Amino acid sequence: MIRQTQHDNRNELQQLLNNSRNTLIIFENYNMETITALSFKQQIKQGIPNELPSAKIYETDINHAPKRKEILSDEEKKLALQNALRYFKPEQHEILAKEFLAELNDYGRIYMYRFRPDYEMKARSIKEYPGKCKQAKAIMLMIQNNLDYAVAQHPHELITYGGNGAVFSNWAQYLLTMKYLSEMTDKQTLVMYSGHPMGLFPSHKDAPRVVVTNGMMIPNYSKQDDWEKFNALGVTQYGQMTAGSYMYIGPQGIVHGTTITVLNAFRKIGKEPKGNLFVTSGLGGMSGAQPKAGNIAGCITVCAEVNPKITQVRLDQGWIDEKITDLDELVARVNQAKEKKETVSIAYLGNIVDVWEKFDKEDVYIDLGSDQTSLHNPWAGGYYPADISFEDANEMMANEPELFKEKVQETLRRHAKAINQHTAKGTYFFDYGNAFLLEASRAGADVMSDNPTIGKEFKYPSYVQDIMGPMCFDYGFGPFRWVCASGKPEDLAKTDAIACKVLEKLKKESPEEIQQQMTDNIQWIKGAQENKLVVGSQARILYADAEGRMKIAKAFNKAIKKGKIGTVVLGRDHHDVSGTDSPYRETSNIYDGSRFTADMAIHNVIGDSFRGATWVSIHNGGGVGWGEVINGGFGMVLDGSKDAGRRLESMLFWDVNNGIARRNWARNEGAIFAIERAMKSEPSLKVTVPNLVDDKLLADL
Ligand SMILES: NC(=O)c1ccc[n+]([C@@H]2O[C@H](COP(=O)([O-])OP(=O)(O)OC[C@H]3O[C@@H](n4cnc5c(N)ncnc54)[C@H](O)[C@@H]3O)[C@@H](O)[C@H]2O)c1
Questions:
Q1: Residue 258 Cα: closest atom of ligand 1
Q2: 625: Cβ below 6 Å to ligand 1?
Q3: Closest atom, ligand 1, to C-alpha of 165
Q4: SS (H, E, C) 383-414
Q5: What letter does residue 25 receive in the DSSP assignment?
Q6: Whether the CB of 310 sits within 6 Å of ligand 1
Q7: Residue 634: how many CA atoms within 13 Å on its side-chain side?
Q8: Pairing state of beta strands 300-305 and 277-281?
Q9: How far is the CA of 288 from the centre of ligand 1 (A)?
Q10: What's the rounded Cα separation, in Å, for the pair 574 and 655?
Q11: Does residue 163's CB lie within 6 angstroms of at least one atom of ligand 1?
Q12: Whether the CB of 383 sits within 6 Å of ligand 1
């Protein structure tokens, strides 16, 4: 009967479509008791429950994804429903079809809220997961961590960060994936197609346990609206970088990276952070780290945010010191902080454009300026237009998308104009990899360079061009991280101590070129406990180069073998030396024209997969937007075994040196130095090194 509705009776479905627009239908309770009586392990092993769980109430006290714009035709909505219903038994289709359609109409996506599990969503100790293999249990732990309410931005929509960075597209995918992981042996590999678990396939012990792809599209179908459409159809998702690869560890990762950026930006302009002003925006998933990083670096930070809920969260969390809602008050407070050379972080609740304009008018000198609104996602809540209230902007976004787009572009032009006024007075402005310059240029703002060359199209550099690229990535320093799967804080403290010891020893033998990075990282790891940055799993981030990563990992594996600590999961952000090809961000300091290619990221993930990664991932889109980047990453479980020792050496060496080799071929000085050093340490590494051409020769041609 339901199948008939699905396939034969189109009128009935059409009627359903017409009747249910803008209504969330809540259905009668189904076997709530059966579901909750099961233990955590049983619920995981059960996967999608046989009997329908009760419908869920839409909780309003939690942060939800904004309604996505209407993108599907009525015919396409039927396809989206068919796609969603294929996870369920036909006898459940009648109820679910209506419910899913209501979700599609009300939120623009089918999340399958009813199937959200009733157990607490958080990373547990690895021992608490059901299963036949330790590696799979570690992956379950990481998945749950990415959906933890304390970690995820929109946990009910399975979104970890960046507004649209999804772990899965719907709850059926989550349930099925966890079930597969609980069944898998170490001779199987789980294949993930953009959140959908295609299934377990036979493989072997050294193969990755999970291979993840997210958002991989035929290149000509990889634009913003393509994402809206194919995501709404339920066939692809935007995995951001570490969300869809289960490697997000909460805000700590980004605090470390942002601290390094702010510190090095001040070094670049030859100023001490103390008493000097950094102006930026966004208190969201990643951007929220800016004020905290500003405090660690020691400057005055003003960070604008339009969303009152998010601002309050950061204030409660202690990541901002003060909140100000009035521009005159803000000016007075900043002037006072400058005078007293304070270290303070101030949130301005309102639009960033108003801050830039007001500071220009009142002559408040800005030393460093940037922006971290989500311009990779400009039309769906990533960037709010000026002179419109937050609520009205949300309405306009859903109901008048074309007008919203106009308002965003108008604001971007104003935004750039105000920045230009400041930079004319001496402010150092950098793009924070959020596609600010790209979108501003598309809006016709005055951001193009007077003398554009490949890689230097804009007036302003990106933070990778000026800071992270030449100072860190070219030398192999990137966001290495680990998670203590026991869940014990004492394990994390022990790993911090091990890592610190390794780094201190390495620093003594390190060349002058990387002394500054080594010093910053030792300082970070020493202060890590004190900064209390753990949210969710017991995780740590530490910028390290290939040698550092390998030596730290080896020391961990030894400590696990001796029973000093439990299992450790290694990983990294995709925002790294080798994993990501992103012409306006990670690879923006590549000037040989190859920054629009993606060979490095693809090689990276393939190479990692056969050198021992426990899971690998490759994504289209992340950070700067759908179609703008290809990025990949890995996870690796250390269990103290010889196998783990062998895998870590082989994989980590490749994982970093692949990118250094490419950066070296692009004639980046630091990378030429680093790859030559790597070849000396490992004679079987043989990399092609570029011959440099005398500029004069070309000038004379
Ligand atoms: N932190 C980093 O190191 C880093 C690195 C690379 C890229 N990025 C990029 O930074 C961007 C932000 O990431 P996120 O996770 O914080 O995203 P997010 O969506 O969680 O946060 C962005 C915040 O900006 C606010 N906002 C939007 N328009 C505004 C405006 N006009 N004025 C004031 N506030 C406004 C939003 O309300 C939101 O809270 C992304 O594009 C991300 O890719 C960050």
A1: 3
A2: no
A3: 15
A4: CCCCCCCHHHHHHHHHHCHHHHHHHHHHHHHH
A5: P
A6: yes
A7: 30
A8: parallel
A9: 8
A10: 11
A11: yes
A12: yes
Supply the pTM of this predicted model. Answer: 0.87
* Ligand 1 atom at minimum distance from 435 CA: 41
DSSP state of 343: -
Mean pLDDT of the chain: 93
Task: Assess contact for 171 and 111: CB atoms under 8 A.
Answer: yes
Angstrom distance (rounded) from CA 508 to CA 344: 35
Q: Which of 17-26, 231-240, 559-568, 574-583 is least confident?
A: 17-26
Q: What is the pLDDT of residues 334-346, one digit of tens each?
A: 999 999 999 999 9
Contact 72, 233 (CB under 8 A): yes
Size of the chain in residues: 701
Helix axes 74-85, 224-232, angle to 10 degrees: 50
- 552, 483 in Cβ contact below 8 A? no
> What gap in Å lies between CA 78 and CA 633, rounded to an integer?
35
Q: Is the CB of 381 under 6 A from ligand 1?
A: no
Structural contact between residues 458 and 447, judged by C-beta atoms closer than 8 angstroms: yes
Q: Using a 6 Å cutoff on CB, does residue 305 contact ligand 1?
A: yes
Q: Quick check: CB of 384 below 6 Å from ligand 1? A: yes
Location of structure tokens 């426990």: 614
Mutation to probe ligand 1, out of 242, 372, 414 (largest number of atoms < 8 A from CB):
372
Which of 430, 435, 370 is CA-nearest to residue 408?
435
Among the atoms of ligand 1, which is closest to the Cα of residue 287?
A: 16
Ordered alpha helix ranges (H), 151-204: 171-183
Q: Which residue has the tokens 């953009």?
A: 194
Ligand 1 mutation pick, 314, 434, 436, 628, max ligand atoms within 8 A of CB:
434
Atom index in ligand 1 nearest the CA of residue 351 equals: 32
- CA gap 429, 463 in Å, rounded: 9
240 lines ligand 1 (CB under 6 A): no
396: its two tokens = 């306009």
The response to whether residue 159 sits with its C-beta less than 6 Å from ligand 1 reads no
Which one has a higher pLDDT value, 518 or 376? 518
CA atoms of 592 and 91, how far apart (whole Å): 59
pLDDT, average across residues 33-58: 88
Distance, in Å, from the CA atom of 320 to the CA atom of 113, rounded to the nearest integer, reads 33
The pLDDT score that the predictor gives to residue 11 is 44
**Which atom of ligand 1 sits closest to the CA of residue 374?**
41
Tell me, what's the pLDDT at 22?
37
Tell me what pLDDT residue 36 has: 54
Residue 309 contacts residue 289 (beta carbons within 8 Å): no
**Considering only CA atoms, which of 260, 240, 256 is closest in space to residue 482?**
256
pLDDT one-digit tens code per residue, 476-485: 999 999 999 9
